[in-house]
Design goal:
This is PASTA domain-containing protein. With 116 residues, the protein is mainly beta. The protein has 1 helix and 6 strands; from the N terminus they run ββαββββ. It is elongated, with a radius of gyration of 28 Å.
């Protein structure tokens, strides 16, 4: 990781991508590059191990001063995620739609093409 110099003379750090990374690994990566991390919605953050980061601020790739706090959000596991429930779909598809593709009784299924 290269350190950039800001106008104040303190080295800048490029924020890594923490989204999709486990809490334990995020704490190690942040410390290694001179960043602090917090998860204000997770009081057990210092003890979290296998929870995955869903969002972060500042975003990955941002150049920030050494010692900047990166805020993290995790999946709470309470079903209140941003993705929402996708199944079952309502309204249900209309019934009988597939029957149009099946041959009717007595139908040979052959098409007669006009000859020119």
């Amino acid at each position: 990781m290269t350190a950039l110099r800001s106008w104040s003379g303190t080295p800048d750090v490029r924020v890594p991508k923490f989204v999709g990374v486990m809490a334990m690994d995020v704490r190690e990566q942040a410390a290694a590059c001179g960043l602090l991390v917090e998860a204000p919605e997770e009081p057990e953050f210092p003890l979290m191990v296998t929870d995955y980061v869903l969002r972060q601020y500042p975003p990955p790739g941002a150049d920030v001063p050494f010692g900047t706090v990166v805020t993290l959000w995790f999946d709470s596991g309470e079903g209140g995620g941003e993705g929402g429930v996708r199944e079952p779909r309502t309204p249900q598809p209309p019934s009988g739609g597939i029957r149009r593709e099946v041959n009717e009784p007595g139908d040979t299924g052959e098409w007669a093409l006009p000859l020119h």
